[in-house]
Fold each of these.
Amino acid sequence: MLFRAIAFFCFGLLTCSAAPVWEPKEKETVVLLGDTFFERDYNYGLIETALTIATAGKQIRFRNLGWSGDTPRCESRSYFGPPAEGFGRLRKQLAEIKPTTVIACYGGVDAFQGEAGITPFLKSYSTLLAMIRETPGVTVILVTPPAASNDVPRWPSLKGHLALREMYAIAITDFGKEQQLPVADLFSMMKNESWKTINGVTLTEEDYQKVAPLVAKALGLEIQPKKLAQPSLKETIIAKNRLFFQRWRPQNEIYLFGSRKHEQGKNGAEIPTFDPLIAEKETLIFGTFPSSR
Amino acid sequence: MKKTFFTLASLLISQGNTLAQRNLTEIPSTDPAVEMASFKLADGMEINLFAAEPMVQKPIQMAWDAKGRLWVASSAIYPHIKPGQTESDKILILEDTDNDGKADKSTTFFEGLLIPTGIWPQDGGVYVANSTELLFLSDSDGDGKADTRKVLLSGFGTEDTHHILHGIKGGPDGNIYFNQSVYIHSHIETPFGVRRLMGSGIWQYSPTTGRLEVFTMGQINPWGHIFDQWGQSFTTDGAYGEGINYVFPGATFRCLPDQLPRILKGLNPGQPKQCGLEIISGRHFPDDWQGNLITCDFRGHRVNRFAIKENGSGYSSQQLPDLISSNHGSFRPIDVNMGPDGAFYLADWFNPIIQHGEVDFRDPRRDHSNGRIWRISAKGREKSPRVDLTKINETDLLEQLKAPEQALRYWTKQEIKSRKIDNLIGKLSAFLKKNPSPQLKAECMWTAQTAGIENFQWYFSEFWLDGKNGSINEPHMRAALVRLLRQLIIQQGLSAITDENGKVLSPEKTEAFFLQLCADENPRVRLEAVNLLRSVASPRAIEIASTVLAMPMDENLNFALWRGCYELSSLWLPAFQRGEIRFANNSKGLLFALKAANQADAAGLLFDTIDKNEINETQINELLEIIGTTVDKKNINRLLSFAENKQRSATSRTAALAALAVAFQQQKLRPAQTTSITEMIADPSLPVSIAAIKLSGLWKVEEARARLEEKARGNDATTSAALSSIAQLGGDASNQFLAGIYSAPSDPNKKAQILLAMTELDINASTPQVVAYLSSALEANAATASLIQAYLTRNNGPALLATALVGKKLKAEIASQALQKTSASGGDTKALIDALTTAGGLTTVTALDEAQMKQLISEVQQSGNAARGESIYRRQSMQCAVCHAIGPVGGIVGPNLVSIGSSAPMDYIVDSLLEPAKKIKEGYATVMVQTADGASHTGFLSREDAKEIVIRDAAGQLQTIPVSSITKKDIIPISLMPAGLTSALRRDELIDLVRFLSELGKDGIYKVQEDGTMRKWYSSETLATINTIFTMVRGEIPLDEIKLSTISGQQKVGIFSYFDVSQEGPTTLSFSNVDNTRIEIDDKEITPIGGKITQVLSKGKHKVTLTISMPSKASPKVQIISSNAKAVHEP
């Protein structure tokens, strides 16, 4: 039901879309990189389902590396060290995953720093981009931050916040031109809609149903309703995401790979055994659509 | 429920088999009846099984809801999900529909979680801590199963699954509180920006505004949290062992590694690990239990009880006899809760294995399927009446705010919130008019707060002034109100503060109000005021907060004020420099704030403060110490001028010289002119002279050489510093001088001092002489230790010494001393360890294989003698007590062993003794820091910030290392506990030692009882040396370990100890085994009657002295019986 709704919605919108921001190729590995906005979707699988449908038959593997509260400085990715440790962790993960495309969505967290935060934000973003570009042949796409709730009476602390997000979205768009990177302007597509949200800034699952096709659209993708097949696609994607989550952000890091690995580090051997399980789920996901060839 | 039939005989047999043997293969019986038969209960209590598997499995947290149903977070997956395993952990609801004290219905409300460690049913659903997320699960169609899964917050860390988000508790203020432990790093998106907590602490979350803030920081595993009737918070901890903690907004305890330079401590140091916390209230429990705090010693299979008492701005806590204890190896009480019938409920994790750091994730002995809820009730007392709040009218509902049961009052506030009552504050005001008790005022205030009312005007007019006579309200109520005002200000800013007519207060009036709060006669109101002002976060707020110093201060108040001055220094210090705030008529406040600020540009201000001559010498010396770390180029000459000024006292001048040394070591700063330092070497004050000698070496003042040589030739307190400074001056002159005096005859200690200087100058050239010295040394002493240490603190030192030792012989005790120091030092020391072992002819300890381990454990069980083991533990040569405490006394370098026997399997204990590096407790990881000058420091991380790292070394000493000088920092897989400590033991002695350790914390005589025993004693051998004596585990003083003195021709043992009286009044002490003993309190002889004495004592420290005529076989024991006094066990 849902997918039909998404597809219908997208189909309607896409009739007037411009040149595609992203031109997905066969068998790509795509990293979704960002903050809470991407992180929450690992559980809902809605953005990924929309993108999977929109790129049906291309057998694209998605890796959701969203981390709550993250910034281009990788502030959420460090454990015991400074943000630089998190930056290093991401670099290592990208080297392992070897993405062909990185879809990065930052700015929602930094918007709380106000207008004065834009310059340092972009500076840290360019450092991050330089690191991402160490991956040979990688394409980077910038996504402007999602909108927040405009219901200021309900969320008084968000007075003026939407305008700040818009400022960041514009800055990211200009920054993309400067960096010669495609920009998917999600913010502009969201700003005039109203969003239920959990707390004014974090979207609800219902909101994700609405925003997922907008992400596809912002990337310039078309969804062909006819190719929608089995309804368990989303569930398979979620199952794959949960396995992947335990692979890249496992619990008990301190014992598996951290300062107490001399005690229970032997259990770290279990972690790579998630890989064949993830691949199994991906075979099911790819099987949903006939190959485009 | 399944009934188990058994005869007494069969029970005794099975118990004997199961409980007497705690070896590695014997898993305790899973029969609830066997477990129940093992319980020992407090007088007047009885126990029954409320629920067991299959109705409940692996409970972690439990909580009752407004309808009297028990919600349980249950995890079979803990400690770690297997690849491909379904996330299938559950939320269960247990119901006792016929009110017979036993659950008769169990519903799985939700399945599909991953290690849920927190649960709180409220707001029409249930809050669940689920690894990275805080979930809200609800049942929209009323079928008893959750159909909506909402992620409220996400981004909580999962670095360790017994540290993850846990312990959800609803506060009386309507906020929800939850905790995380020390390895967790969380990053949460909120409408107020991202909130990050890197380490342990308690979060405060408002379900209405979505605001999430850090409430307190620190503790290692804050696993218990409860509120008292006035909304004050208490916590327990599963790792750092300080019993009950009093916590307040901004309170900070031990954290790792980013610790604040100042922290608070718990109320019962030396406690075992504890989990869960509940406060007794309600009609069912007898009066003497009311207000007691109950927590679980899950390692010791018992549930502890504490009585808390007001003490200044905080509390004191005294342990009472346990509520329940057991010797069943799987009884693991971890959560405690008052039920709707007024009885006490206990969640039993039921597992022979706990933790997953020490024991493998996949250890087959782990229990993944059982779990129990026990119900403890008071014999012969009526149950508390059960009230269905959803079915009563508004008037009756308000009446329930008077209920003696704290939980019932909580659910009443929640029910009122859910009814969205019109004109609630009007109704509460009318209700209060009829019922004007302070406790009810607090309840009504929180009722409004819970319902989201932010009307300052109403709170102020209703609760600040007492309606009857216009005087301000009762102190507990005032403190609760100030806490609420703080939250309103955080939410709305200062414009929240209005007068009784709703008009926003002018800044002047606001300040006058704050000043009034800081001068409140009640210390807790002042504490809340300082916390409030810290949240206001303005220069003027700090200035006002510092006026609290005009009233009596205590640890909490000092901390709260310090934290504000320290954290907000970048705010108030510039304002002070611009003259915007002046601390007028409050030099105490200025001094406090400047000391706390500890910032580079503070040095000049600190000097100005000293120059004003308004502060005493102790304060001056404290400031000089701070100046040492903060001084800049501009002010460095001022520091030297101060030291030169003979009008100043020798102590202050020495402090100034020490500060100059710190400034040089940390910042390479020194005055332009250094000639005066040569003069000061000849200063008549010995401390000034020594400090000057050290500085002349540090600064390489060549003009000082002649004077230094003169000092180096002598043999007094200045000699070793002078030798070291000559080495630092360097060059041929130093070389020749040192070689010359080394060849001249002198005593071995002087020779060692010279050698030490020679190693400083040229370690390569002097090594043959050092080895020759060590080879001919007769005993291991401080001199040999310092020479070995000289090699261990240099990067190439161990290798150098190892090579030089080839073919040489050392006395065994010297080799053994060197080995202990070497194995604790980290780095690559294998060659040196081998060389020392060979040179000393020592046998090395090897690990045991599985069969050997099994054999050893069976010998421990059959023939191990714990009493002999205790005396081995206490041997000077074993050094155990130097590093470890058992209960409240002992060393602080290693983990407290108070409950090691009840928590760790025997193989773990044996491994830890033979191969200390194999198992390292959390918080005890060893860090090795190398600095640019080639030195290396090893120890565990005490704290770390942007400026410095502080590590505690194997000797328990704190070493501060400036971050700027660090070239390398590693966590290394070694233990500070030296390997080889047990190498000197015979096999039978090792067996006895293991037996002793394995009994610690188990029910019996090796469980430390919190019975007021004075456990730390002193004996003075000479006027200068005071020895510390710790009592045996049972609390007795071993007289044979104390040196005899001859007093009036008779051999005697004289010992003394201290206790602290918190409130003036009659204080009772009890004395056992004190034949032939003269007893004094504060140097006045007393004679106990029936082993006891009661005296009215003033507040403060008092002394007990025992003089025992020898020979005596007695082992005296002294206990403090009264709750107004406590033994002093701190240094």
Amino acid sequence: MAFPEILNARALRQGIDGFVNQLVIDYADTLERLSQPLLNFLVFVEQLLRNSPWYLVIAFLAIIAWFGSKRWTLMVGVVLLMLFIGVIGQWDRGMQTLALMIVSLVMCLIVGIPVGVLMSLSERFRKVALPVLDVMQTMPSFVYLIPVVMLFGLGKVPALIATIVYAVPPLIRLTDLGIRLVDHSVMEAATAFGATRRQKLMGVQLPLAMPNIMAGINQTTMMALSMVVVASMIGARGLGQEVLAGINRLEVGRGLLAGLAIVALAILFDRVTQAYGQRLQYPKQGDK
Amino acid sequence: MAKIEISGIYKIFGPNPKRHLQAVTKGLSKDSLLADTGHTLGLQDVNLSIEEGELFVIMGLSGSGKSTLIRHINRLIDPTSGSIRIDGENVLNLRQNELIQLRRHKMSMVFQRFALFPHKTVLDNVAYGLTVQGIDKKNARVIAADWLEQVGLQGFGDQHPHELSGGMQQRVGLARALATNPDILLMDEAFSALDPLIRKEMQDLLMKLQQQLHKTIVFITHDLDEALRLGNRIAILKDGALVQQGDPQDILLAPQDDYVADFVKDVNRGKVLNAHHVLAKPVSTLTTQTSVTKAREWIMRHGFDYATVLEGPYLKGIVTLNALQSATEDTIRERVSPVSSVLESADLESLMPRMIRDTAPIAVTTDNGEFVGWVSRTKVIRLISPAQPIGQQDPVGELTE
């Protein structure tokens, strides 16, 4: 039996369409202008990575891996993974994807950590933010790809924004959780010594939440990588585009090689961020 | 003026404490408040005045409200009603930034579970209070290093707290609290998490530091032995209300009710009490320059066996009537016989064998040898016998008559 028609879904749909269309008419130009710095940043990173000699890029990543983990095995692993990407002929596209990852990660940090901090400080804000995060994580990304493309046009910026929307929630959640998990008695000590809210946040809460925040960064990078193919549908270049081409032309080899390169990047990001997070972990007091 | 003056503090925990305040002040009990309204009565009508330079112990079982009470002094918890004056100023009227200044400069706190910052080195932990004040890191570290040495942890500055044992961690906690040179030290069960030997060590350290620093210390504990050992005065808290306050002897000898008597019952008095507690001051003393006739007259007039002879603040010995009978010289100098003495801090357990072996009086002196009085045998016997709540028969009283 059909469900009784309570409101006119067709009219609702058209209403939403009309609203978004109006939004595009009124604001698309402004938004594109506002997003210009973001585009410049992305292009800058991309040019830097693509124009630098490959061995310099690998050396740079190896240094980051060393300072992140202080383990030479991991450093060697990073070098091998990057060589692998080059050997299977995905270097240039890999650099494009890497640039997108780096920029979206930076944007996620800029947005995610302050929002997470706010959530941990205000119960009210937290109550509002949690369902929003749930929606961001569960809503199929294609649904918001349409209006984002309409507003920003095809290209790098909408891909970046879609990636951020999809990838930032775990960082926000884990920042909030990390701050909430800071030992109550340690916070009390800071208060008892006359620390201001700011001193408590910067000097105690954030440093002690770092292991959790690093776990959040790890999750965020993984989710951003998983958006690579979707992002390429709206104009992001790189490995995703290659996978897409593989699908369109039914070329398994093309898709597989690009896919393997994505996996290599994922492993690289994952291991380095995890190792750094572990190094930040302090044993609880009283354990001895 | 008392250093800390707590008057009429009530604390009710729950969603709407003010609404139930009146019922509580009219005598609604903790249990019925909880049953009727779901609110918990934390403190009821607590009045305390803590003097400058004293080590004031607040004692009670868990749930008695002692940790709540100490957190009122630096306003980690605000009372439902009442006032807290520090140096005459009601801290409840302070604005947020004034409160922060008070916490930075006037008082600091030592915590039961140490509450050190796990991400900072030991040295930076000690320096924390100073850096929060805005002192630059370099100077703060110099001061912190000095305090680290005072608590016996020189050389550990670069380690992290988790690398130290519990006792050492609490030394860091103590150094952190002292580094800002506050007037008031709040110690919330500071030594309760430590094992007995380390606890005793920390008590000794605290007493040693207190002798030099003369801070006003509020010390929370559930351990009566600790309270008696450390406290100049002791207040006992039960269900958020004060049941008794007084000096250690008061508590031991005249427990106000069964709750306190229960506490006192199992105390090892021989260990807890020391010569200071069984002191009898001589009515008056003679000097080596006193004339023989005057001394003889003095002893007979008072009906004593002997008189105390001092030279300046130091004990010379005693002079007995016997020794004076045949004396022909002018002063009693040559007739004084020496006596043995103990330090004020000597515990009763170590005194007992001497008292039993020897009937001669035992003198009590300070650490630097000044005479303070005699060991009173009567007091010793009274103090080591089990306490009875007031109003009950005191069997020892009869014995000593």
